[in-house]
């Protein structure tokens, strides 16, 4: 039988991991969470069993993702605080309807919804033409935006500024992997960094903080110039929703706008 001391130590180890990942001192974190540094030290070493409220307050200060907050609570012997709704289930019908409405409203411009790992959940009809010529192996479910965007059999050969596009995607994946500590993301990051030309592109392009990425994509009808933005749900209380992102593409010039509109008709 697991003792409270053992569960507290497990939670304490996780808490220390997140604090060190965020480069916060015990004193700094304790002040922000409204507890003493001594008590926080006892929690991290397993000498004190934290309440679920304290763990959630500390996780909030450390910006721990919801999935990992549940893991922290479980390690301390508490029930998860956040639900994890299957997107295909009946409970998520309203969410699917809202997402479908959002994507349809963005047509004739492309938009896609993907999860934490970059696996595509939904797309609108305008996405299809962008995938022409991609290796069918990359289009089997689930389609992964990082593999599709960076693999030599995917979109990469059709991107005009390939170095910029590669750096944009890899830096985005790197930030997510560091934020979550998710080992599945670590493996995906290692995989895409092994694709031809990726390491060279990263060496040429340092990490950027661009809010609006512009991509030049060759297509059978001519070159497309597209702005791309990624948005997420604001203040979600469900693990699944918190990990969804919507990537929307907008025409960067009039020629692209007219081309996308003509394709839609």
UniProtKB/TrEMBL annotation:
Molecular-function GO term, any one: DNA binding
Segments forming domain HTH cro/C1-type: 15-69
A Pfam family recorded for this sequence: HTH_3
CDD domains associated with the record: HTH_XRE
Superkingdom of the source species: Bacteria
Stretch forming the signal peptide: none
SMART domains noted in UniProt: HTH_XRE (SM00530)
Alphabetical list of PANTHER family matching this protein: BLL4672 PROTEIN-RELATED, BLL5781 PROTEIN
Entry protein name: Transcriptional regulator, XRE family
Species the sequence originates in: Modestobacter italicus (strain DSM 44449 / CECT 9708 / BC 501)
